[in-house]
Amino acid sequence: MQRAFPWTRIKRGDPSWRRRRVVQTLVTAGFVLSVLGILSLCKPWFYFVFNASNSMSGLVYLVLPGRTPALGDVVAFYPPENSLYHGKRRFLKIVKGIEGDRIDIKDHHVFLNGIKIGWVHEQANNGLLLRPIESTVIPEGRYFVWTPHDFSYDSRYREIGLISDDALIGTAHRIL
Q1: Which residues contact residue 110 at a Cβ distance below 8 angstroms, ignoring those fewer than 6 apart?
Q2: pTM to 2 decimals?
Q3: Phi-psi category of 143—alpha, beta or left, where left has phi over 0 and alpha has psi -120 to 50?
Q4: Which of 150, 151, 143, 136 is nearest to 171 (CA)?
Q5: Rounded to whole angstroms, what are the CA distances from 45 to 8, 40, 93, 100?
Q6: 43-174: what fold?
């Protein structure tokens, strides 16, 4: 005669199964949050950034400070203070343009080295006016950061502009 584990005796539709499933989920979530809390004490070596925007996929990113980003890397940075965001808020975007790349704005479209990469809107969802970045060549120590989301608030707009090395926190890697 085989001995069954206690949790195998409960059928899926049974109300006690649902309670047990809720408890298991809460315990797992508590464990994950505890581990993230303990790891956040290691801030000189890495940070966790929670993505609250729908312009980037993923919920949690691990940020490694002090790394020079390459084209296509996801970076975390502090945007300049502007009419939409105040204080030290962290942004996550993709490095789309680097030193020497050419940015042009034509008919509300953004071009990077002659290739159309997105649209520039005249106003934000809350009605505030948005100004497109001026056409330029990206200088040394600056990055054009972007996401493919049509309404992403990124380097397409003067309020964000080209991100300097000083504003970068580090390269970001999706973990959830």
Answers
A1: 103, 104, 116, 117, 118, 119, 120, 132, 133, 156
A2: 0.72
A3: beta
A4: 143
A5: 43, 10, 20, 31
A6: Umud Fragment, subunit A (2.10.109)
d(CA 136, CA 162): 10
Q: The tokens of 31 are what?
A: 């464990």
Burial of 91 (0-12, 13-18, 19+ CB in 10 A): buried
In tens, the pLDDT along 94-150 reads 999 999 999 999 999 999 999 999 999 998 878 888 899 999 999 999 999 999 988
Distance CA 145, CA 101 (A): 12
H helices within the chain, ranges in order? 15-39
Could you state, in order of their start, the residue ranges of all structural domains in the chain? 6-41, 43-174
**Residue 74, pLDDT above cutoff 70:** yes
The predicted-structure confidence for 23-61, as pLDDT tens digits, reads as follows 888 898 888 888 777 766 665 677 778 787 878 888 888
What span, in angstroms and rounded, lies between the C-alpha atoms of 105 and 146? Answer: 15
Picking from 172, 157, 165, the residue whose alpha carbon sits closest to that of residue 98 is 165
Residues in the chain: 176
